[in-house]
Amino acid sequence: MTRLESVWTDMGSLSDLEEKGRLLRKRDGKQIALFLHDGVVKACDNRCPHEGYPLIEGTVAEGSAHCVLTCNWHNWKFDLDSGETLTGGDKLRRYPARITSAGRIELDLVDPPADTVIVEALDNLADCFDRVEYDRMAREVARLIKAGGDPLDALRRAITELWEKFEYGATHALPASADWLSLRKEDGTDPVRNLSMLVECIGHFAWDTRREPVYAFAAGRADWDEDGFVAAVEREDEAAACAMVRGAFAAGLSWADVERAFARAALAHYADFGHSAIYTYKMRALSDHLGDRDSVERLCLLLTRSIITASREDLIPEFRAYAPALTAWDGMGTEVPDADTLKKGSLRAILEKISAGGADPDAVFDACMEAGAWQMLHFDLSWQDRTDSTVSQSVGWLDFTHTLTFGNAVRKLCEAHPDLWPQGLLQIGCFLSRNGGFTDPALDSAKWETDAPLSAVEAALKGVEDHGRFEYIVACHQLKLSFALREEMTERPDRSWHRIAAAALTRFLNSPLKRKHVRRVAHQALAFVGAAE
Ligand code: FES
């Protein structure tokens, strides 16, 4: 990074500045504000780095040891001596000044080299994370792009800075980033679209780690061993599992080499509403998009932690029928269940029906997805609004979207690793058993139905691009479900359940999504401690 040679540009006479106190000059396409403070010339961009309002209208603190300029639009303050932004975020560009023997002011307007701008943009981006300064993130990445930097370096930097701040490992930031980057790659012609999708990824990582301390990963390294990794995850030994992940990457392995181990670990239990399998599948795309080994290794360590910390719901009584069904699976059954028989029922009954078709997992998958799509289309919204429900009845839209996104992940993982079909299908059955009780078969679904399911899903994806949702968790579920359904419809066209799934998606996107349950929480708290209501 060599500093380019100074080129001094005349800005006018010092006496003029002394008389007026401040001057605005335009040179080389730049607007420059000049101030005189204690007899010293200070020069900076006239456009405030926040929203571009003119700093020439700002206030320079009188009698202060430092030359502090306040932009009066939003009170950002800049130290024109040190270059620090004292209040606010983005850095203000200053220009070196000198006075000639003839009393003329000259400024060095030479722009710093591109590699300097790129490094500064990435450093400044990292400054945004703690306070999740979304708008500033967009500006810093825009500066990176303008300087010719690789936009994906911004996400790589976010991962580098934040990966150890995820207390419980990977979050939806991982699969959402995979989908945003995939969409972004499909059409790279719109700079606004390109930037917005990238900032959604970075913002999500920052949001999920805001104000968190570092939860350091153990530094050890061990030889990669697929069975050993799965066993370490099973006994919740993060240090041992992560040591093997580090060993894998040190030995030159890639995501493709370790995916099978992660898929086995992710599907070892019906756990955490299927997050582990969804995250594992999405690592495939994220690894391809990011490309660099450091980011992929860090994300693998994050994923390891999240699989280990996932709640193993197959161990609670509600899902206790899962383990015997898995043990009994022989893969010989040829009676593919009718989707209608999977829409409601006890877990034992649903798992028996799924197992009965075990010889044809592809067909059983379609039956399960049809039942899951039907359940979502017929979700009884009164459950979302109830304030007197128990904790186990706290059901919402995201319980239903997960059946389908989990199903998509199961299919993609099990097509690559077919011995995992039993776990995958039976775990979809766990979703079906759980959600069936919260549906209303009499619900009139006609207004959501469509003869063009793929078009409906593509329209939904288009809408997600400018989702307007403050909560990342909401936007990413809209994104992930739309993306998963499009993948299902394009890779396996003309399945009967696609129309139902498209209708369910449309209903989901057009229905209220209650994200806070003020009275329900109070009711449950009083009931829990046995206090009178
Ligand atoms: S535009 Fe200057 S502080 Fe907002």
TrEMBL record:
InterPro entries attached to this UniProt entry: Rieske_2Fe-2S (IPR017941), Rieske_2Fe-2S_sf (IPR036922)
Pfam families, per the entry: Rieske
Any GO molecular function: 2 iron, 2 sulfur cluster binding
Domain Rieske, residue spans: 8-106
Keywords, comma-separated and alphabetical: 2Fe-2S, Iron, Iron-sulfur, Metal-binding
Cofactor(s) needed by this chain: [2Fe-2S] cluster
Family: Belongs to the bacterial ring-hydroxylating dioxygenase ferredoxin component family.
Record-linked PANTHER family: FERREDOXIN-RELATED, RIESKE DOMAIN-CONTAINING PROTEIN
Protein name: Rieske 2Fe-2S domain-containing protein
Lineage: Bacteria, Pseudomonadati, Pseudomonadota, Alphaproteobacteria, Rhodospirillales
